[in-house]
Specification:
The chain is an alpha/beta fold. The chain has 2 domains: 12-52 and 160-282, Rossmann fold (3-Layer(aba) Sandwich), CATH 3.40.50.150; 63-144, Orthogonal Bundle (Adenine-specific Methyltransferase, domain 2). Helices cover 39% and strands 16% of the residues. It has helices at 15-18, 37-41, 54-65, 67-80, 84-95, 101-114, 142-151, 162-166, 195-210, 223-228, 270-282; strands at residues 27-30, 46-51, 155-159, 174-177, 214-220, 233-240, 252-259, 264-265, 268-269. α9 links the parallel β4 (174-177) and β5 (214-220). The radius of gyration is 19 Å and the shape is globular. The relative contact order is 0.16.
């Protein structure tokens, strides 16, 4: 199943390759929510899903708590505002911060599905600035919304930075990080994601791995990422790339899946112990 949101770097297409590297555990922690494709494709007992973008987290929280009303109003919005004039009016209202949480969530989904190629982009003033996509019949993802609302009952959604989220880890947590990729577009939020962030994230993940947490990271296959995750096992994959690709250029790119090595403390295999704990916790 596709995701509620269109999203650059959506993991749906690579899940068959990614999922075999995700270990068992009582909770999956994702500091970069994105489209939530990983949450939707896995079956952990609990999830902690975070993102620094408050519009994204608000959308997910609203769907979790108000799914039927959200679907009813969303259908109407998609039917009533399917032209460029309506799009720019909605974008202006969104940027003026009109309405409460539910209305902002509806507008955010509308802009995502009607905007150019599903991009999520903000200017330095914090205004959503993606142009109209000129689609004849934008898809309203009702089935995806219902499936998400059901799965979201196991999840806690927080608006937080990656370092704030990784400070909340509990024993047995599995971490999956899908940050903005090195060398690609990183303007999903006004704060951006710099090379310094790549270094800082990797240093935190290295430390959390040494403390016994199992960590999996996706990123571009570059000299920088190979260096940053040199103590991890990393696997190269080829992924389709649809955004930011010029005519005539390759529509695929090399990525890595970096997987932390399982630590062994005093002769005890931490991963085996965690899997044993997960098995017993997961039983009815």
């Amino acid at each position: 199943m596709s995701t509620v949101m269109k999203w650059a770097g959506n993991k749906t297409a690579v899940m068959p390759k990614l999922i075999k590297h995700l270990p068992k555990g009582p909770r999956l922690v994702e500091p970069f929510a994105g489209s939530c494709a990983v949450m939707m494709a896995t079956d952990y007992p609990h999830y902690l899903v975070a993102d620094i973008n408050p519009d994204l987290i608000n959308l997910y929280q609203v769907i979790k708590n108000n799914v039927e009303y959200f679907i009813k109003e969303g259908r109407y919005l998609f039917e009533a505002r399917n032209d460029s004039e309506a799009y720019y009016k909605t974008r202006q209202e969104f940027n003026l911060r009109h309405g409460g949480a539910i209305e902002r969530a509806l507008y955010f989904l509308y802009l995502n599905r009607h905007g150019y190629r599903g991009l999520c982009r903000y200017n330095l003033s914090g205004h959503f600035n993606v142009p109209y996509g000129n689609y004849k019949n934008p898809y309203f993802p009702e089935n995806e919304i219902r499936a998400f609302a059901e799965k979201a009952q196991r999840a806690t959604f927080i608006c937080a930075s990656y370092d704030e989220t990784l400070a909340l880890l509990q024993a047995g947590d599995v971490v999956y990080c899908d940050p903005p990729y090195d060398g690609t577009f990183a303007g999903y939020h006004t704060a951006g994601f710099t090379e310094d962030d790549q270094y800082h994230l990797a240093s935190i993940l290295e430390r959390r791995s040494s403390e016994g947490h199992r960590v999996v990271v996706s990123n571009s296959d570059t000299a920088l990422t190979r260096s940053l995750y040199r103590t991890f096992n990393y696997h190269r994959i080829t992924a389709k790339r649809s955004m930011g690709v010029a005519a005539g250029e390759s529509k695929s790119a090399q990525e890595i899946i970096a997987v932390s090595k399982d630590p062994v403390f005093f002769g005890v295999d931490y991963a085996a112990a965690a899997d044993f704990s997960f098995f017993h916790m997961a039983q009815p």
